[in-house]
């Protein structure tokens, strides 16, 4: 038995959804650089689910289906109002809320392809409404119902603030959603596939994926990057702060990747957005500090910034609460999770690796009265 810790380099399945080859990321063969600049998030959802970019009618149909499914059961709002909301992390609240969605979905246990596709639409459409409702209720505000005349990205920002977002914010948020949508067999996507490979339902698969994304080594890193920037406070503190982290052998959040060796192709788009948005909001210090951190870290260690590093200052510049950064990752990554769940159902085999046993050899049972 050869143990491969963390399954590093292990090819666990085949997939036609996204590829990471020689540090190039594609969704169904389309380079992320092209999609980031040209595609709407709605187009990317269709691409990931149908393996082709939609024509005008297909895009209009998906957009309408998502808009028509964006409302959430009152039970979710009541749940948020009943919970100790300021003690609950938004990812924990999202995890519970998606479970509640399943309880109010008459097709929750249906396993035919059409029902699973309809549930994918409902889950994708409702996660933004859940996230923004939570964000408002914990501030004592009423949730804002989704509108059907705004884009997916625009609707999220509208439901968060109650104001119609400007085109720059919509463009930036749309691009962030496109960049985070899918990423081959990352930990949360693999978690979703392991779950549904038992032929468990789609809601269970998404709840499992939310739990995995929550961790700071995965989607939870972006919130911690912002915490690090706030702790550093000023570009003059970057060097001593990072050096101390290195001396303490602590991980620098937003750096390193299991697969990318020379750099995460998504980071450059988020870096550009960070420079633009921090300038527009009059707080270039967040970008300046981030660039100084990147310079210091990469001078010391061969670990380039990943998708979580510059997304922090982008989301902060959009006025988003720092602990909502990971739920926003989930808003986007739900499209990838759902694509992989549907692909797993389509050609399923139970996922069950082995473990090399390192415990004691055979033992004889001794009754409790005779044990020391
Ligand atoms: C995401 O898989 C995906 O595709 C994920 C993702 C996606 O889109 O789904 O890309 C999104 O999760 C990005 C990663 C977000 N996480 C962080 O930013 C947390 C900080 N990063 C690290 O914890 C780490 O880089 C991981 C978890 C991302 C990758 O971990 P690995 O592959 O297990 O690497 P490792 O921990 O074994 O480190 C290898 C070496 C070690 O040095 P040595 O002990 O061998 O000397 O690199 C060092 C590590 O110390 N290292 C770091 C580091 N990351 C790796 N050192 C300091 N800071 C870091 N961030």
Explain this structure to me?
It is a single chain. This protein has helices at residues 32-38, 41-50, 56-68, 74-82, 90-103, 113-137, 152-161, 167-180, 187-196, 202-213, 221-232, 238-247, 265-280, 285-300, 307-317, 325-346; strands at 18-21, 24-27, 30-31. With 372 residues, it is an all-alpha fold. The protein has a three-stranded antiparallel β-sheet with strand order 1-2-3. A hairpin with a 2-residue loop joins β1 and β2 (24-27). α4 packs antiparallel against α5, α8 crosses α16 (325-346) and α9 runs antiparallel to α10. The model has no long low-confidence stretch (mean pLDDT 98). Residues 6, 183, 186-187, 217-219, 221, 251-259, 301, 303, 306-308 line the site of s-citryldethia Coenzyme A (SDX). Residues 6, 183, 186-187, 217-219, 221, 251-259, 301, 303, 306-308 line the site of s-citryldethia Coenzyme A.
């Amino acid at each position: 038995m050869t143990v491969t810790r963390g399954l590093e380099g292990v090819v666990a399945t085949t997939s036609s959804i996204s590829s990471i080859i020689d540090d190039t990321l594609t969704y169904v063969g389309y380079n992320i650089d092209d999609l980031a600049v040209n595609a709407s998030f709605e187009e990317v959802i269709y691409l990931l689910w149908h393996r082709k970019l939609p024509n005008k009618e297909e895009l209009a149909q998906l957009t309408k289906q998502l808009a028509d499914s964006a409302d959430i059961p009152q039970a979710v709002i009541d749940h948020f109002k009943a919970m100790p909301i300021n003690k609950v992390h938004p990812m924990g609240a999202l995890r519970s809320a998606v479970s509640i969605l399943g309880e109010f979905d008459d097709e929750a246990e249906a396993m035919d392809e059409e029902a699973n596709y309809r549930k994918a639409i409902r889950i994708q459409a409702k996660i933004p409404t859940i996230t923004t409702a939570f964000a408002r209720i914990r501030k004592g505000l009423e949730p804002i119902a989704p509108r059907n005349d705004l884009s997916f990205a625009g609707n999220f920002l509208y439901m968060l603030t109650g104001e119609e977002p400007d085109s720059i914010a919509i463009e930036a948020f749309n691009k962030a959603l496109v960049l985070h949508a899918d990423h081959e067999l990352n930990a949360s996507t693999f978690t979703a596939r392991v779950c549904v490979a038992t032929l468990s339902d789609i809601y269970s698969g998404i709840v499992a994926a939310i739990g995995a994304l929550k961790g700071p080594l995965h989607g939870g890193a972006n919130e911690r990057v912002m915490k690090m920037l706030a702790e550093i406070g000023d570009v003059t503190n970057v060097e001593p702060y990072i050096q101390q982290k290195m001396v303490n052998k602590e991980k620098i959040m937003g750096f390193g990747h299991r697969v990318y060796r020379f750099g995460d192709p998504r980071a450059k788009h988020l870096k550009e957005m960070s420079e633009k948005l921090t300038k527009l909001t009059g707080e270039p210090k967040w970008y300046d500090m981030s660039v100084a951190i990147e310079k210091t870290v990469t001078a010391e260690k061969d670990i380039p910034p990943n998708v979580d590093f510059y997304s922090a200052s982008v989301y902060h510049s959009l006025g988003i609460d720092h602990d909502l950064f990971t739920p926003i990752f989930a808003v986007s990554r739900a499209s990838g999770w759902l694509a992989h769940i549907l692909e797993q159902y389509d050609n399923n085999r139970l996922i069950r690796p082995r473990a090399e046993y390192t415990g004691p050899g055979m033992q004889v049972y001794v009754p409790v009265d005779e044990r020391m």
